[in-house]
Design goal:
Layout lengths: L1 E8 L5 H10 L4 E5 L5 H6 L1 H18 L15 H26 L2 E4 L2 E5 L2 E4 L2 E10 L3 E3 L12 E2 L1 H4 L8 E5 L3 H12 L3 E6 L10 H13 L3 E4 L2 E8 L2 E7 L4 E6 L1 E4 L3 E3 L13 E2 L2 E2 L12 E3 L10 H15 L14 E3 L4 E6 L2 H6 L4 E7 L4 H6 L5 E7 L5 E8 L6 H9 L4 H6 L9 H10 L1
Parallel strand pairs: 1-2, 1-6, 2-3, 6-19, 8-15, 9-10, 9-15, 10-11
Antiparallel strand pairs: 4-5, 5-6, 7-16, 12-13, 13-14, 17-18, 20-21, 21-24, 22-23, 23-24
Helix pairs in contact: 1-4, 1-8, 3-4, 3-6
């Protein structure tokens, strides 16, 4: 039996940073992965989807080249080549993770790990001793009835991310980030897209004004949005799905060549043996304390599997936090309300902190500042004037409570807002920033000034 200071189960965005940080702190570390080095995010999620979305953005730009005085005729799109490009990106980054493991001395083991005790694992029958365990097993797509995936017609992101064909008709179940991004992608490539969301609006966790603006934008692009609706039946015959949707005042029958289920996640805890380490589950997710510990001692759970905030960058932060805590450091508590969020459709959506309604519900005295990209020089110059920036601040102190953006590449504007949040910045301080001119970031400054 091999002994390590730290055993990390899972090599995704929570696992591999945890393993690397632990090794950097001088701890002997092993990372165990049963499927893909880099996890779902790198191989079948965040990274390849952004590559595919970039393909769609280029296609859309070429189709509209006449707006820039460029005439392009007979535009054709080879989706399969675009998928191949996305896989090359994945391959390069996977090799990068392997290189980092070698650099820092992280042992890498392929296999299925089961926790047999608080200081012991079994990997396909082989015993591994460990003084500490970091669980980073992630999650998989939830398949609520009647959405039983068959991998061909009724599918999840796992299948569509590598599928080289664009279906003619697509029904997407779920109006969160994944559903929205694939709706945009398929629509650009000519598919007839219908998106079904159970709640009253898409991106229901975002600020209501942002959701409304995105609904208008996607609708104008030709995407059909059915909100406050649910799928009650799916019947597949001869490669075609008949989808029954219960909407507000009617029942709809939709035909689709593909049904993409993007309706939440289920944690990967089956057969993991969490109970053998003194841990407990809640709705399948591993319960953790404020130090991310499962048992109050030496076993930690990070990322989607703990159910706190299922975002890749949150998993990364939690993984590093757990490793540093094991290493004897005293890392600062993570600011979950301040974690940035992003949806990579066009226009993009980016946010941090509380929405306006959340701030009011929590009793803050609220002031709001907004600035449209229609009045931003860079946005007009590049031909992307859609959207706005919105700042939510405490009217008594000026504290930045939240920021919400919709527009071209607004996900790249979150950095300064995250820093402002980290440093307890105010609307006045953000308004005093000198942004390069012209830039999209000036809209953030102007929104802050509008809130003062």
């Amino acid at each position: 039996m091999t002994d390590y200071d730290v055993a990390v189960i899972g090599s995704g965005p929570g696992g591999y940073p945890a393993a690397i940080r632990a090794a950097q702190l001088g701890l002997s570390t092993v990372c165990i992965e049963r499927e893909f080095l880099g996890g779902i995010c790198l191989n079948l999620g965040c990274i390849p989807s952004k590559a595919l979305l970039r393909n769609a953005e280029v296609l859309s730009t070429v189709r509209n080249a006449s707006e820039y005085g460029i005439e392009v005729s007979d535009v054709t799109a080879n989706y399969a080549v675009g998928v191949a490009r996305s896989r090359k990106v994945v391959e390069r980054l996977t090799k990068g993770v392997a290189s980092l493991f070698r650099r820092d001395g992280v042992a890498y083991v392929e296999g299925n790990a089961t926790i047999t005790g608080p200081r012991e694992l079994s990997v396909d029958g082989e015993r591994i001793g460990c003084r500490n365990i970091i669980i980073a097993t992630g999650a998989r797509p939830a398949l609520p009835p009647p959405l039983a995936a068959d991998g061909e017609v009724v599918v999840t992101y796992r299948e569509v991310i590598v599928d080289e064909q664009v279906p003619g008709r697509v029904v997407i179940v779920g109006g969160g980030a994944t559903g929205i991004e694939f709706a945009y992608l398929y629509n650009v490539y000519g598919a007839q897209v219908t998106l079904v969301e159970f709640l009253p609006r898409i991106l229901p966790k975002e600020d209501e004004e942002i959701s409304q603006a995105l609904s208008r934008a996607l609708g104008s692009q030709g995407i059909r949005l059915l909100t406050g609706a649910s799928v009650t039946a799916v019947a597949v015959q001869d490669g075609t799905a008949r989808v029954t949707v219960a909407a507000a005042d009617e029942t709809l029958e939709l035909e689709a060549d593909r049904v993409l289920v993007a309706a939440g996640i289920t944690p990967n805890t089956d057969g993991l043996g969490v109970e053998n380490a003194g841990g407990t589950l809640e709705r399948g997710f591993i319960r953790v304390d404020d130090r991310l510990r499962v048992n109050g001692a030496n076993v930690y759970a990070v990322g989607d599997v703990n159910g706190r905030l299922p975002l890749a960058h949150v998993a990364h932060a939690e993984g590093v936090y757990a490793a540093e805590h094991i290493g004897g450091l005293d890392p600062p508590a993570l600011d979950y309300p301040g974690m940035p969020r992003a949806t990579y459709c066009n226009p993009q959506v980016a946010s941090i902190g509380l929405t306006e309604s959340e701030a009011r519900e929590q009793g803050y005295p609220v002031k709001v500042g907004k600035f449209p990209f229609l009045a931003n020089g860079k946005a007009l110059a590049v031909g992307h004037r859609e959207g706005f920036a919105k700042i939510v601040a405490d009217s008594s102190t000026g504290e930045l409570l939240g920021a919400h953006l919709i527009g071209h590449e607004v996900t790249e504007l979150l950095g300064e807002l995250s820093m402002a949040r980290l440093l307890d910045g105010t609307d006045v301080e953000i308004g005093r920033l000198v942004n390069v001119h012209p830039s999209m970031s000036e809209a953030v400054k102007e929104a802050a000034l509008a809130a003062v």
